[in-house]
Amino acid sequence: MRRQNGISIEDVMKMECMKKCRLIAGFGGIRNTVSKVNIMADPDVLEWVEAGELLLTTAYSFKQDDIGEQKQLVKKSAEMGLAGLGIKIQPYLKELHPEIIQMANVLNFPIIELHDAIPFSEIMTPIFQEIFNKQASLLKRIEKIHEQLMHVMLSGGDLKAIIGIVTDNVRNPVVVKLESHDEWLAEWATATPEMQEALTENARQFLKQAEQRGDRNRFSENMVTLMQQRIRRMVMPIVVKNRVTGYLMTWAVGTPLGGFDLSVLESASTTIALEVLKQLSVMDVENRYRTEFFEDLISMDDTRKKKAVEKASLFHLNPTDHYLVVVIKIDRAPEGLTDEVFQKMSWITQETDAYLRDTQLHALVISKTDSLNVIFTSADKKLLNEHVATYSRQLLARKPKKLMDIGFRVGIGRCYQQLEQVDKSYTDAVKAIQHGPLIGETEVVYFEQLGIYKILCHPSLKEELERFYQAVLMPLVRYDEKKSTELVKTLEVYYQQGGNLRKTAEVLFTHYNTTLYRMESIQRITGMDLNHHKDRLNLEVALKVKKLLE
Q: Where is the PucR C-terminal helix-turn-helix domain (predicted)?
């Protein structure tokens, strides 16, 4: 929508210069805003007119054009957003063709019959003067509103106060939805409870549709149906650092919406963006302090760790409580989904904050670009484990559909007593994320679930594990590569089926004798006897080491 500050067709018709003129069609557009006045010498002028103009002409061209061309002129004028058409019908025509009148009424496009004795200049000059006066008045009002908004910002006011100023000036319900807030911020003006519910649902639908269309950063103005009424809606995006962080919405429930209201929304959205930016800056500073504290806490340097423990009281942490670290890692995003990664991280942070608020459980949240580290703490070890389990379940259950393109994994470390042990819980959580797929877990992985991998994944064992793998299983792997056989797979299924050859054959869809032959080949190539418990254990562990090394 172009900014249109001016006067309405209704106001124009009340002016002295229009006393001998009358509105003959398009009465439904009487509130159209006139921002300029122009003269049409011929129909080609439509190539240069702008929305909001009142176009003045004579019926001379109408006398020459056929009815089809006349209807096309009215239709195109309405489509271009002109405020209306003023025509000197006489002395060129007795009256406009009824089909023209009917079309203008259908389109709600005002047509004014101008008195043939009034020069165009005597119409244009007073209207321009009135528009200028109105715009000057609006500029003063907008400047006053801007001063009010700035005062709220500088005096430490909140978003509620900003919304209150917007509502007082647009005299309609105003709703703000920010990514950083779970709830809707609203001032309902004179809207009834039923209308408030309808407006909230309409706002939700807009957000959903905007996500699907991918045009979240555009101003939107259209007509919507609410409680069997057609109501104009304006939606202004709130942009921070070239990214949409929320929306400011209003509906013409009490009074019509026009150019002035658009100006109010623009000014308010900028002010809200500044407030959001201020909040983000504060959060960034706080997160930086938490990050420095956390990195000192998990450091291998005893001096840094001791320094962090001494600062524990600043973060309301008791050094003797129990601690458990949860690491949430965003999966690698496809190209072009940087904004989606940011949205998912914002959502995870909001869900974490909401859970901590609801349960009053204390935790330290450290946010990074593509991960979140949460240090849960409590004096009660059992309660701590229960809360972490509930938190991780809720996080997965409430995963929004709009962010399904990018997944995330949750790693849960062991619970340790003493703040100095946090580094161990963090290391456990990271290993849980890294090695969860080895045990078939890809979303929420507890370190305790890793079984033997808890031992095998220790960094100090890597070199020894590689030697063990080379000696025990590598001959079989190389044989498969050379002969294009599936002996390693057969061995894996054999262990999965508890050493039952018949079930192994069924899973592999092979004949029992074929499976038996494969097992004999495995023993021959590896030099291992599957009837001997020591060899059987070595081969099973070697298969796990293979997964780990891969």
A: 487-545
